[in-house]
Fold these 2 entries.
Entry 1:
Amino acid sequence: MRFITSVLGMQRLAKRWRREGVEVGFVPTMGCLHEGHMSLVERARKLVGPKGRIVVSIYVNPAQFGPAEDFSKYPRELPRDTALCRAAKVDLLFAPKDHEIYPAPPDGTFGTYVVEETLSQGMEGASRPTHFRGVATIVAKLFNIVLPDTAVFGAKDFQQAAVVQGMVHDLNFPIRIVVAPTLREADGLAMSSRNRYLSPEERRQATVLWRGIQLARATTRRSQSGVSASKMRDQLVKFISDHPAARVDYIAFFDSVTLQPVDLLKPGTHMAMAVFIGRTRLIDNAKL
Ligand code: AMP
């Protein structure tokens, strides 16, 4: 497995691969890799075939964290991540340095951001105002550095995948975006690098997100005429708040293509939520 930290080094190799007709599959991550990430790697491998190359990037992107968020304490485990990627037969691990991605004076400058203005408005975008500007900017930069044919994103971050798809469509990036399913722990908790912040008691209560989704799904599937979104939200807030460590940030019901909120829940409506478990903010989503 190759290991590259320089932007120019990565871009040179990517251009060589392009000249040679090598197909590139790309999995961007913030590291602290888990089985969810590795399932994206497997998916990328299937998509580009044995002759293709798989690139994983690891970069904790400061631009997508708000000022009061967990950027400085976000877990960083490059040696372990490197071993996992090697074992998964990743061809290249790209772990760029901050000062190359966001050059700062006196040696450089950075002043251009990518802003998606439609799909990024609600949910995560409403709770974390500069988050998707940071995401779209780093993904655009990584696409221009890695030059992938295909990039795989997780449905775990459903709105993120939608924003990336919107950006790729709107700005004509010649890249196929594939969204792979959310991997879960045995008790339903969506795998996440942030799960390691949880104390054992918080970890037990963290299953409330998945149990909340299942409650909404069962209620929706039982109903003949649809379920009121506001009643379902009230019921879920009560259900979640019965867990002392849990505090709801948002619960949203929406159309899975437009991401516009809906008033009436039917099978196929999408739901997403963000819940603080103690000080850790977890997100989850699923189709009802
Ligand atoms: P992150 O490192 O958390 O920014 O995630 C990198 C990529 O992995 C994103 O496309 C995420 O949606 C995806 N991902 C994170 N957790 C999971 C999971 N449990 N299952 C599938 N994909 C995931």
Entry 2:
Amino acid sequence: MRPAALRLAGVSKRYGRVLAVDDVSLAIAEGEFFTLLGPSGSGKTSLLRLIAGFERPDAGQIELGGKDVTAVPPYARATNTVFQDYALFPHMTVAANVEYGLKVRHLPRDERRRRVAEGLTMVRLAGLGYRRPNQLSGGQRQRVALARAIVNQPEVLLLDEPLGALDLKLRVEMQAELKRIQRELGITFIYVTHDQDEALTMSDRVAVLNGGRIEQLGSPVDLYEHPANEFVAGFIGVSNLIERDGRRLVVRPERIRLLRLEETPEPGSHLEDGVVQDVTYAGMVTRYAVQLDRGGRLLVVQQNTESAARASDFRGRRVRLAWRPEQAFNISAAQSEGPEQQANA
Ligand code: ADP
Ligand code: MG
């Protein structure tokens, strides 16, 4: 069996009183698109810096390609990092920026030329090598940063919120580009983001971080369909939680049917009556906030497949919510006050 591209075993890192990374263990396969997802301050960048070697862990082991690199400096690791702020040299051309790492490593000139041309083609900037960074758009600059990393042919590419500075339209475009590049190169990507949509659309697997700990690790479908706890259920998707008979139930808003009282529900459905408090029309969908008679409030999302005329006359009305029992899942309460309280104690 081939060794994992990356293996972390019990890795921890403390900054003063903050436990930024708390006993993290995971293994990432070769060629995987792996995402570290979590809110600001959850330890994503700290973990990435440990993998890159910019920091040493206080405890635990880091292996790349089956070799223990815990004490190996960054330049001797088979990793490269792409940062959110690009960190390009403003006085150098695009080509010189991309070539920089190859020069540092004293690669022969022909080899450098060849790799720079390939790298720029890969990120669709062929022909723009003569420009300076300030003559490029934000998206193009991020492509240069990407080209500069991939010409070094790292085994693992680390990306720390690389699209964070781009507007939404460009971000979505670059998400698809990054996926394409990763597929074509076949190298392992470890991608950091706080954006759940980005994580779900791009990743083979995702680790959800909170307070320096992994709350859950799984495929996008696993995380959305079977969140392990309240934190994951709320962070990925909308936290649609009610308590019934001492159990905490999560139902995704698009799995709930909104019925008028006179409509007949599907046999076997779980039913809840309530009052529509709020209606938000959002083009493709309409969102309804419903206060339930038995307590609790649920968000319902209905696709506007026909006309939305029906939407507004639901405000203030009594309705019935219906879902198939298997669409609601039991979850445990939030676990992770632990590390943060420890840190602040
Ligand atoms: P994220 O990237 O998920 O936003 P970070 O890894 O940057 O989170 O930070 C995790 C925690 O560690 C935060 O509480 C942050 O303030 C703290 N931290 C990170 N780096 C340092 C540092 N160099 N010195 C002190 N505290 C740090
Ligand atoms: Mg960060």
